[in-house]
Amino acid sequence: MSESVVRARDASTVMLVRDGATGIEVFLQRRVSGMAFAAGVTVFPGGGVDAADGVADIAWSGPEPGWWAERFATDEQSAQALVAAAVRETFEECGVLLAGPTADTVVCDSTTYRDARGRLERRELSLAEFLAAEGLVLRADLLRPWSNWITPESEPRRYDTRFFVALLPQGQIADGATSEAANVAWRTPQDALASWRAGEHVLMPPTWSQLDALCGFADTAAVLAAEPAIEPIMPRYSAGTDGTPLSDFPAYDRYFAQLPQQAGFGGR
Fold it and tell me: What sections of the protein cross the membrane (predicted)?
């Protein structure tokens, strides 16, 4: 790696889904305008991996770190940290807690842990400390590996992001009680994409790509049963002969053909 290229930080993003009246719905957040990264952009809950996410004493249920390491082409410690970050970020950003009092249960009312949620977001508490104090088990089996996107090398802030998918646990409510979201909504992938094409909100290529893929599933059972091949995707900035400022990601030509204001593309 060139000395001028910033090393990509590990990150986890979770596509939280549920079955709605007209098909699959996914939980989306519009980030506040003051964020250092992707300000004002519509995203899924997620964020960077913290050092504390990789501790070994987390109570765990489901596929072991070695299984996740194979799917995400990384080492076991990093894989554990990615899964832990996925659970932590989902709880911090929308109040959905993928954990339970036993290995085969999940909490029904996550608002019970409202104070701990705030402490987690302020980094006053680690996920391992929270789970241990409350006698909870991390439910890795409620997550599915989905994709891996890496920020282009020319960017000053870079992430190596693993995307997960998870079903909204029964009884829990996803909310917008986070300092990072200006507004939140459950939307079908089709509706979210149509709204983007109309210029009503901004989707960066990774989010667009995941929404586009979800359009191909009839219900959440089909999504959770899917086993997508996960290959690292790192878009590349280039003038190119086709006029697209960014390439090397699936269906990039279709993304730019549908982008409402290509001249204002803010990926850089």
Answer: none
